[in-house]
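Table S2 (continued). Query chain:
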Amino acid sequence: MRLSLIGMAGAGKSHWSKKLAEHGFRRFCCDDLIAERLAPELTRPDGTSMEMGEWMGFPYEPQYKERESKYLAYEIEVLTEIFELLESGEMDSEEDIVVDTAGSVIYTGEENLGRLRQSTTIVYLPTPPELQEQILKAYIANPGPVLWKDMFSKQPHESSEEALARCYPELLVARQRLYEQYADVTIDYYTRSQEGFGVSDFLKGVDDPSMKPRPGREDRSRPPATRYKS
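Corresponding output:
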């Protein structure tokens, strides 16, 4: 089985990709691979390291636009390398794979998203609207590398923090539409948060017909995913 996990930062992509890795899946974490490429820029003058979110900053900061663009370029580079490996025939076709995508994978272009569809089953992990404030607080307290793609704007007499709080829910809604557009399977937050819900339940959800796309969206021009080997 070859899976890709998509969703906002904090949706649980890393959590579930690591759980799948513990059960034998080979894991590709796009953020980790991007961080490797950014390593020289993530080192402060005193030799200590910073997280990518600190490096990128918030969308109202002067360095943001340039770093947003650089991050996306590296993200596309990382995806291309993963695709080439998956498509090369050098990997065991029976090996279970999970790609932990960055939240901005939906901005990498139709060609890359098409290759993602062909190479993997895309699993969307949504976050419900009632968690938006919690997600925003987490982003402000410990910012991750979020790509805003011109969704941030500041109104007259509005502080940067107020603008962030106003625009973040709009970003979530816009992204949700794109995640849903490209997903093969959706496993909702409350399902995967149930007590005792584990990897076997997650994989059953991937195969559950009720989790599949609406009619007319099931043709991804690729063979169906191979079932997970127990």
